[in-house]
Amino acid sequence: MLYEHLGARPRIHDTAVIAPTAVISGDVTIGAECQVLHGAVITAEGGPITLGEHVIVMENALIRATAADAVHIGSHTLVGTLASIAGANVGEEVFFASGAGCSTAHGLAIAVKCE
Hints:
This protein is mostly beta strands and 115 residues long. It is built from no helices and 16 strands. It has a single domain, classed as UDP N-Acetylglucosamine Acyltransferase, domain 1 (3 Solenoid), CATH 2.160.10.10. A six-stranded parallel beta sheet has the order 2-5-8-11-14-16, with no helix packed on it. It has a five-stranded parallel beta sheet with strand order 1-4-7-10-13, with no helix packed on it. The chain has a five-stranded parallel beta sheet with strand order 3-6-9-12-15, with no helix packed on it.
């Protein structure tokens, strides 16, 4: 489900696949060949969220931006089931394990090719 929030609508590349039970809200940009799976929530609460190309957001993951901390997720990154990301700058080719979280570390930068 796509929702306008705070005057912004999600922008989804034509080749991205969004599950019907995923929720995408606000100033969110999803790049080419991305997949957002069932139950995932991507919500821009005042700050933008950008997903590069070939990003996979697995089931029930949460990605949240605030007015103080935007979210950028680099290309070829996997966000595992139940992972939580808030206000982070994530490099390319990063793997977030299932249940991983950086929600308490607003403004966190995660380097390229981290696991």
